[in-house]
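pinned: reference chain
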Amino acid sequence: MTFKVGIPRALFYHEFSVLWQTFFDCLNAEVIVSGETNKLTVDLGAARVVEEACLPVKIYFGHVAQLPLQKLDYLFIPRLVSIEKKTYICPKIMGLPDMLNASGLAVPPLIKPVLNLVSRNSYEDFLREIGRFFGQDISRIKRAWQSGLQEQKKHESALLGDVNQAVNNTGSVAQDKLTILLLGHQYMIHDRHINLNLLEKLKLYGCDILLPCHISKETQAALVKKLPKSMFWSHGRVLLGSAFYFSSLPGPKGVIILSSFGCGIDSFVVNMVIRYLNKAKIPSLSITLDEHTGEAGIDTRVEAFFDMLCCRRIKDENYFSAYGQFLGHAEGAFGVSWADSYHAAPHK
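pinned: its structure tokens
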């Protein structure tokens, strides 16, 4: 018998979709994933969750609200406490199954195994809980999980090899090409509705773009060890490790940080990242998003950020008229025709 398992296209789906899809495929389950995020998704989620929840959690509930329409047998909502040793996940994500039960949404039975690699050294209990729904022995569940892990590893390796636009094979950025590091949770970076299609807009500026997924987790973890205290949030390791790595690369560069309003972890970690970047003299732009954020405001801030990066490369960067007259230009500032890229930017 084939079961239909629903997975919301939100939160950690953007990071582990390959693992989960392969795992359930090996168990002969049909995976149903919700569609792309849109305004209806946000409205449905916001109506079902407390106001204090961050935008990604509201969007998660919106995806859940749309999934039961497809006659699912189960809904996969894992309780992720810790996905690597000595680190923890956001408390709101830990409590998703409980929040969903309290929301009043009519949903199918939940597959909600607990993954906590701080208290346990294996996935044994996590997999046993999933296997209970499929009536299969633990050995087959483990084989399916190993297949998923292998495909996930291939996917992550492909992402590391996909940095040729920003980082060449020797690990160095092109000397005269502007490179932007876009920091944030995977679901902030890859959900086009949350970030108002920011990733595609940045490409129109003619710069190279580096993402945290382009930097190996081993590299991130090793660089974070230089902190005086251990970083016990997984997302904090990603943000700080990526910033440390990026600061060592040559060439003109800047950092854009995406965070959601109400995110407790980001309120601490983003501040640490900004202080480090200021000390390293790397320009940064911090953008906080919620369901009320307007696209025009984001476009204006990004445009101003690129103008500032442009002016830093001009020889007479401090020479401005008292009346606001423009006394120079930035064409060729980054080894390319800035004017060509600038006129192709989204604000034009």
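why pinned: Residues 77 and 112 are 5 Å apart (CA to CA). The two ends are 55 Å apart (CA to CA).
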